[in-house]
Amino acid sequence: MKLVLLFILLLLNSISHAQSTVNNFFSTTGTNYALVTSSATIDQSATGENLIWNFNNLEKTGNTTDVHSVPTTEEISNYSGTTFLITTTNTDNNDESKSYLKEADNMVSITGLSMTGLTLNYDTNNALLGSYPSNYEDTATTDELGGSYSYISDGTTYTGTFSGDIETTMDAHGTLSTNDLGQGAFNGAVTRIKSVQNIDLSYSVFGNVGTATVTVFNYFNNTNGNLVFRSLRIEVSVASLSIDQDTITYECRLGNSLGTPKNDLAMKILKISPNPVGDFLNISMEAHLTVKKIIITDTTGKEILNFYGNETSRNVAQLPKGLYFVSIITENTHFTSKFIKL
């Protein structure tokens, strides 16, 4: 009997820590994150199965929001092959970072990255992130990359070319816990993806002058697929220009918040009726706004419907009863509201 009980306990433990399929490398559109620091070291060095990450000393320093959109004609021209764009906005100071991406035959590649002080255009060789959905046992994805860069340091802009490689792997799974940052603590089973870019920088007539390393860790909730914690580290070293910079950003998902507007202006711009809704959902907004995409998600962040243009009415009769969110993406911003399906 004791052996049977022990076997059952071990089986339950393995199930609770089992890895899951990750459907994409990124967050869902409209997801809100807290920018965080930690009073304790965040150690992400371990790899393998059934790991435990206790990130319970996080302190919130700001907020960011991810929005997915269709690239403009100019963006497609600048970052060839781009099929979609993710804009991460710091809602405290409106700083933006943009990831330009290409998705074809379930393969996802980076065509460009743009953030304060650094722009990478992978116009020579896109950086392949892998095929999705992906599983823990899948072989790591490796690829060569190359293109042009623009880097600003102490008010001086440096431009040149770069080359290197990228490796992306689902390198660990286990249990992640984070402390409450205002919308509830997290404790659950996650699967982690690690992506590392090793880049050689060339500048003007000097050839190779330095290196850059970009390391990303993404932790996905095994239950609903949400990207619940992520980190981005950028290391740049150019000895001849006395550049030696190392920056790291941590972000923790804020509950199930999907960016619901909390100010009167946003509520006036976007109106949902009727609410609650039975069959047809009517969406109205100020006439000067040009809508690029409308996305309906459930409370887990899963995308349920999406449609393009200024479509003002949508049949939602097939949706199960419950709470849903509508994200309206325009040329310059986005608005989110919620409705109840009867």
List keywords for this structure.
342 residues; Immunoglobulin-like; 2 domains; 12-stranded antiparallel beta barrel; 4-stranded antiparallel β-sheet; disordered N terminus
What is the percentage of strand-forming residues? over 45%
Please work out how many helical segments DSSP would assign. 3
Helical coverage, percent range: under 10%
Oligomer: single chain
Stretches with pLDDT under 50, minimum 5 residues = 1-18, 256-266
Q: Largest sheet, order of strands side by side?
A: 1-3-4-5-6-7-9-10-11-12-13-14
Task: Describe the SSE topology.
Blueprint lengths: L1 H15 L15 E7 L9 E8 L2 E12 L3 H6 L5 E7 L5 E9 L2 E9 L2 E8 L1 E5 L9 E13 L2 E23 L7 E18 L4 E14 L5 E12 L4 E11 L10 H6 E4 L6 E6 L5 E7 L5 E6 L4 E3 L6 E9 L3 E8 L1
Parallel strand pairs: 2-10
Antiparallel strand pairs: 1-3, 1-14, 3-4, 4-5, 5-6, 6-7, 6-8, 7-9, 9-10, 10-11, 11-12, 12-13, 13-14, 15-16, 16-19, 17-18, 17-20, 20-21
What do these coordinates show?
By secondary structure, the chain is mainly beta. It has 2 domains: 12-253, no CATH class; 264-341, Macroglobulin (MG2) domain (Immunoglobulin-like), CATH 2.60.40.1930. It has 3 helices and 21 strands. A 12-stranded antiparallel β-barrel has the order 1-3-4-5-6-7-9-10-11-12-13-14. It is globular, with a radius of gyration of 22 Å. 32% of the residues are buried. Mean pLDDT is 82; it is low at 1-18 and 256-266.
